[in-house]
Amino acid sequence: MRIIIARASGGIGNTLARNFDKEDKELILTYNKSLEYYRPKLAKYEILKCNFTNKDEVKELYDNFSKIDVLINTMGGISNALVKKMHMRHG
């Protein structure tokens, strides 16, 4: 199974890389600026630079792989950067 973890250099991305570090997995770990990432021990892996706001870099990334099974996007943020101001509603 080939899994791309977008922005794998962040805290969530590192945690996901650790959880998917299995012999039957192939991980494509991307970063934009930070190179602080988990290096898998069991899975095959590649670490690639990709700025997902640049369509040419995204196209180049996806053109290199004929098959992608899972894409996990860990990019995101909030404008005020305060978690305590985030609200969740339960339905």
List keywords for this structure.
Rossmann fold; 91 residues; alpha/beta; single chain; 20% helix; four-stranded parallel β-sheet
State the end-to-end distance. 34 Å
The major β-sheet equals:
4 strands, parallel
Summing up helix and strand content along with how strands pair, one would put the structural category as alpha/beta
Instruction: State the share of residues found in helices, binned by percent.
Output: 10-25%
> What sequence of helices (H) and strands (E) makes up the elements?
EHEEHE
Note the overall shape.
globular
The CATH superfamily appears as NAD(P)-binding Rossmann-like Domain
- The spatial strand order of the largest sheet comes to 3-2-1-4
- The CATH level-2 architecture is identified as 3-Layer(aba) Sandwich
Radius of gyration over all CA atoms, rounded: 15 Å
Number of spatially distinct domains: 1
Taken as a percent bin, the fraction of beta residues is: 15-25%
Oligomer: single chain
3D structure, described in words:
The protein starts with a strand and ends in an 18-residue tail after the last strand. It is globular, with a radius of gyration of 15 Å. The chain has helices spanning 11-19, 55-63, and strands at residues 2-6, 26-31, 44-49, 70-73. The protein has a single domain (2-85), classed as Rossmann fold, CATH 3.40.50.720. It is an alpha/beta fold and 91 residues long. A 4-stranded parallel sheet has the order 3-2-1-4, with helices on one face. β1, α1 and β2 form a beta-alpha-beta unit.
